[in-house]
Write a structure and sequence with these properties.
Helix content of chain B: over 70%
Shape of chain A: globular
Distance between the termini of chain A: 40 Å
Structural class of chain B: mainly alpha
Strand content of chain A: under 5%
Largest interface: A-B, 46 and 42 residues
Strand order of the largest sheet of chain A: 1-2
Oligomer: heterodimer
Number of helices of chain A: 11
Helix content of chain A: over 70%
Largest sheet of chain A: 2 strands, antiparallel
Amino acid sequence: MIEVIQQIINGMAIGGVYVLIALGLTTVFGILGIAHFAHGSISMSGGYITFFLVVMQGLPLVLAILIALAVGFVLGLLIELLAYRPVRNASHINAFIVALGLTMMVEGLNLEFFGHEQVVIPTNLRQVFDIGGVTIPELRLYVIIAAALLIAAMTLFVEKTKTGQAIRAVAENRDAAILMGVNVKTIPLVVFSISTVLGVCAGIMVGALFAIAPGIGEGLVVKGFAVLILGGLGSIPGAVVGGLVLGVTEALAAGFISSAYKDVIAFVVMIVVLLVRPQGLMGKAR
Amino acid sequence: MRLTPRHLIYLAVGIGFILLPQLIAVKYYLHLSILALVWTIAAQGQNLIQGYTGYVSIVQAGFMGIGAYSTALMGLHFGLPVWLTILLAPFVTAVFALATGYPSLRVKGHYFAIVTLAFNLVIFIVLMNFTELTQGEAGITGIPKPGSKDGLINWQDRETYYYFVLAIAALMTGVAVMIIRSRIGQTLIAIRQNEDLVGAIGIAAWKYKLFAFVTSAMFAGLAGAVYAHYQSFINPEIFGVAQSLDAILAVIIGGSGTIAGPVIGAFVVVFLPEYLRFADSFRLILYGLVLVLATIFMPRGIVGVSSDLWAKIRGSKS
């Protein structure tokens, strides 16, 4: 039993990372109908930048994270302006191919600047808590807390602020939103910059918890989309539930079945959900 | 039938392909041409689902892997003749495509692409880890060439294999033309243009989409089988997501939704990296940039651009 609880807690840490990735993907999808496939690779760039600032430049971790977040914010703006805006009115297949091209470019740039060795962001959080036989490393606990805070902040932003309302309005009905005076040119910029910042947070967490290496970003973005399919497209609570379900399933599969096939099991869960509940666990039936 | 410039171009291209081995001095280019023809088969399949039906599938290389491994394993374990395993490989691939296409076609557009990509990841993981069957990363060696040692045709010869692959590529291109010109093909194009409307006039779009997906997988399975017997060696490396992206790139660069497009695209995708001998990371950046710029500025690919040019020239003449 303790083993099971242990794996569930492990799964919550990685699940939190999935949720952060999925939140970015789901807001972008909600507003623009784009499957922003480059999201994972760009998130990993954030992790790489943090690693570079801490290890090569000797900056304190907190400062490095703040710089990485700022870079992520700007990257988000640039991606929307330079890559996605030009294909805004073309068929949706074009936007997806642009996303694929962007992924290849970002992966290539990551390789070029940071090499193909895996990197780990060093933290001084080595303490391990022991609660009734269940061990929780300090770092893992902070990741779970940070993810929870970010999820709460994102939910509040979308639900309570004026900008958040505008974002939801555009997602609901673009034309009506234009008529109500929402500036639909700036909304995508806001969405992309916030999504990328959330992605960078996830990238840093992956870098600190595990390691960053080429290809990790692509794997992560596929997991992010699996979360959306699990939870229901465009739904924030869906992304949270889906992410935790995926993370915990994976941890249990890795712990009790086979770690080589844990990704296969995660995708099997996704396929089963598609077959049984195509609208996702939290999605509304259409 | 009147002879138009178009027919003359086809004739010239056909003769060009037949004479190619005689024109090539460097053996290595013959090797690349064979690879490009293998990719032509896979890209014609990719074009059916991506170019005509409008659904980007990112599992073409994975299906090539299934074709390649099934032909190799059937030969190895059941002692079946090579020509039979090559023929059976697309059908084995079709079974997998049916099983994967049915759930994944429940989601539309981008999400279909993501689900197929997940399948490619799964195929890759299984090929890597199911070592009892696939021998994992080490791969399978000594896959036999078609024909017996003292048969009429010397299959060990690269030139012979070139003509073999050329014949298959031409045949499959013909099959693609037939599918597109048929009622089914027209329905696929209609799905790309307006899927809701297709449903509204009482056509079960999902059947046609599944048909396009499974057929495209069979093209890939055949390409993989031909590849396996050409190289005599396969391992999971060449059946990953990156190679599926190459198939997509080939269709886009060449011209999606055209028959000539995948042929041109396949040759570009195989030959371009050879001319641009950059490091791997640069290749990725360049490919990505080409993909983004091509989608923004020439969404109809090389075929689209050149037919526009042709129309302009003719327009200025008359």
